[in-house]
Design brief:
The chain is of the alpha/beta class. It contains 14 helices and 7 strands. It is about 50% helix and about 15% strand.
């Protein structure tokens, strides 16, 4: 039985998982460090340094049609940019790499790596969505859980193809240079290695109430639409950060990735070009988010 504190933290880990699978309205400027950072619109910032400009737009990785059209400020900034930068260009992911990372290559199976009760619950949902056993038999638990999450969200009108990242990737085809902040290998390793230690617990709690997933996404979308960065920060980050037992996974999934992405964005700020960066919403907020990391860079 989960105690209340652990229940809250695991709820937030589900949100974290969805964000890693996924705003003040008026303009404001904070110019205390090396870069001039302007909050242009909901979840949208402009960073200036000498001749370089980097636009940063927070993404929700799954979306509905009612999240469009986007603000003219955002789309105009994209059109004026020399390159699109995304966490990962999903159009360039090697399917063989995905199979290698997401499926067991040895004698292990999904069933062998989960408790009997957890496996039965997960299998019931996979079968409910008509996923054949041949498809999930060798899946690693994180991949099976991601499959169920995406199928449930698709059934409720959310669509990965409508995600903000995909919207701009489609617009950039044959039109702009596309750059990546991470590689597929790096992202898949995070799921494969970091979630493994929590897989039974994580899946057990996730399966307790499937409606929770959609509530979490609806809440995130509400914060995104209304520009409530503080609300999203409190909802996603604070409960996790307060519990040391999750410090390692949060450090790997969030803090270290933010540092690496901020460092790469700094290389763009040392050019004379304009870049439009689309990155998961959670990576931009908080004291250890990309925006604050860039603000802390001294002149």
């Amino acid at each position: 039985m989960f105690n209340k504190i652990k229940e809250i933290v695991l709820k937030r880990l589900i949100v974290f998982f969805l964000l890693t699978i996924l705003f003040i309205s008026c303009s404001s400027v904070k110019e205390t460090g090396k870069y001039k950072i302007t909050n242009e619109a909901n979840f949208f910032w402009k960073v200036k340094h000498n001749k370089a400009t980097v636009f940063l737009f927070g993404s929700i990785h799954v979306a509905k049609n009612d999240m469009y059209p986007l603000s003219n400020k955002v789309t105009d900034a994209f059109e004026s940019s020399d390159a699109l930068v995304v966490e990962l260009d999903i159009n360039n992911v090697n399917p063989m790499l995905m199979l290698q990372k997401a499926m067991y290559q040895d004698e292990k199976t999904l069933e062998s790596e989960l408790t009997k009760e957890t496996y039965q619950k997960l299998e019931a949902l996979l079968l409910l969505h008509k996923v054949p056993k041949m498809a999930y038999y060798k899946m690693k638990p994180w991949m099976a859980m991601m499959t169920v999450l995406m199928l449930e969200m698709n059934q409720s009108g959310f669509d990965k193809s409508l995600g903000i990242d995909n919207f701009f990737l489609d617009k950039a085809k044959e039109k702009k240079q596309i750059l990546e902040l991470e590689t597929a290998d790096e992202q898949l390793d995070l799921f494969d290695k970091e979630l493994a230690s929590l897989q039974n617990e994580f899946i057990d709690y996730s399966l307790m109430d499937q409606s929770l997933w959609l509530q979490q996404i609806d809440t995130l979308v509400h914060f995104w639409k209304t520009g409530n960065t503080k609300g999203m920060e409190k909802f996603v980050l604070e409960p996790i950060a307060e519990h040391p037992e999750f410090a390692k996974i949060v450090d790997k999934l969030y803090t270290q990735r933010n540092i690496k992405m901020a460092n790469k964005i700094e290389t763009y700020l040392n050019t004379d070009k304009t870049y439009f960066v689309v990155v998961g919403a959670a990576h931009l907020i908080g004291d250890e988010g990309i925006i604050e990391l860039l603000r802390k860079v001294k002149k």
